[in-house]
Design goal:
By secondary structure, the protein is an all-alpha fold. The chain has 2 domains: 55 residues, no CATH class; 125 residues, no CATH class. It has a two-stranded antiparallel sheet with strand order 1-2. Helix 1 packs parallel to helix 2 and helix 5 crosses helix 9. The chain is globular.
Length: 187
């Protein structure tokens, strides 16, 4: 909303899509974000069909090089991605500190939404077994078929995940300043 220059009041306290969906249904809030599974379960399956909600955009995947990648599953439903909505409304490509914060947050949180971490000191054998199990799951046809009901699935490799974590140590000062300014503005 900040990137679009839209005035809004940020309401906190909703700890799940299930809870915030009720707030939308009751007219307490007008806009919410949801993960892919939350969107599929609560919004797409119930709220959109009954006219309680619509999807003005989705957040595209941001690749490590900073370019955006559309999500075919959502594009096929006619839901535009935020990048395209921005270009349509503003008449130009997004740029500047707020856009850089958006891309940073998408890489750090959006691309690793369902990441799993073992605590420090976990034996190497256990970490390797967990990694192998995760990789095997991402290739299991039965799992993929069931998970596809909740939208397009995007898995990050261990190397990609470690790269994201490593990149958090070297965040450009301009991005940190813009992020801090956004946080301060909401307080």
């Amino acid at each position: 909303m900040d990137a679009l220059g839209v005035e809004y009041t940020y309401v906190t306290g909703f700890n799940s899509t299930a809870v915030s969906s009720v707030a939308i249904e009751q007219g307490e809030v007008d806009l919410d974000t949801a993960s892919g599974p939350g969107f599929a379960r609560r919004v797409q399956s119930a709220m959109i069909p009954n006219g309680t909600a619509f999807s003005p955009w989705y957040y595209p995947k941001v690749l490590p090089d900073g370019t955006v990648a559309p999500i075919a599953y959502l594009e096929q439903q006619g839901i535009p991605n935020f990048y395209d909505v921005y270009v349509e409304l503003k008449g130009e490509e997004p740029s500047g500190p707020k856009w850089e914060v958006f891309k940073f947050l998408q890489i750090v949180t959006g691309n690793m939404l369902f990441a799993s971490f073992a605590p420090p000191g976990t034996p190497d054998e256990a970490v390797e077994a967990l990694r192998e199990s995760f990789i095997a799951t991402t290739k299991d046809p039965e799992y993929l078929e069931e998970a596809a009901r909740f939208g397009e699935i995007s898995f990050a490799t261990v190397e990609e995940g470690l790269g994201v974590i490593a990149s958090m140590k070297d965040v450009e000062p301009e991005i940190l300043e813009a992020l801090n300014n956004l946080i301060k503005a909401d307080q």
